[in-house]
Design goal:
InterPro entries: DsrEFH-like, Sulphur_relay_DsrE/F-like. It holds the Pfam family DsrE. It is a single chain. With 110 residues, the protein is of the alpha/beta class. It has one domain: DsrEFH-like (Hypothetical Protein Ychn, Chain: A, 3-Layer(aba) Sandwich). It is built from 4 helices and 5 strands. A 5-stranded parallel β-sheet has the order 4-3-2-1-5, with helices on both faces. The N and C termini lie far apart (26 Å).
Length: 110
């Protein structure tokens, strides 16, 4: 079973986050994650160098693609020239992720 993860907002949880790996694994039960889609305020995670490194290390170790919503980045004045491991995409990627996986998990409110 593959799962696509849409992360909307982590601001309420960021202080409690030990690591992205633990955070995601607590919400899934051994399922294969096909992608992490950062949407809305979740793109602010890329502004914190330590958090960004944790997310990228986790995604590389698990072979998970990381996507960031282009409009969410633009709206928050976050440069699209972020780490090349993060794919800057439109909402079509979110729709594709939802349709091509068995399950979608949404973390955080809009």
């Amino acid at each position: 079973m593959t799962t696509f993860v849409c992360i909307n907002n982590l601001s309420d949880l960021s202080n409690d986050l030990e690591s992205p790996k633990i955070f995601v694994k607590e919400r899934l039960s051994g399922e294969k994650i096909s992608g992490l889609f950062f949407y809305s305020n979740a793109v602010n995670e890329f502004l914190n160098e330590a958090r960004l490194t944790e997310w990228l290390d986790y995604s590389l170790s698990e072979g998970i693609s990381v996507y960031a919503c282009r409009n969410s980045l633009i709206k928050r004045n976050i440069s699209e020239k972020i780490d090349p491991l993060i794919k800057v995409v439109g909402l079509g990627q979110l729709i594709e992720g939802v349709l091509n996986n068995n399950k979608t998990i949404v973390i955080g409110s809009l």
